[in-house]
Amino acid sequence: MHTDPQKQPTPRGTQADGVENGKIYLVKYASLLRATYQIKLLAYNAKENGMQLVLVVRRVCRFHPALVALIKANPDTILRAHAD
Length: 84
Description:
By secondary structure, this protein is an alpha/beta fold.
């Protein structure tokens, strides 16, 4: 298989678990949550559209330092909510 080095990468998209009342909800059942491409892209979309990204996680879920930094950089855009 031959790939063309001049070809631009195909942009990827992501899907939230729900959108309601100006909030984008992303539900994660993990013990450690990282600043993934999905979270970064949803945060960008939320900020561009004047919405908030709500990360719904368990109370025991820890956030990776990169995700903490992303939240500190966007405190009005990214929120944490507990599912339990």
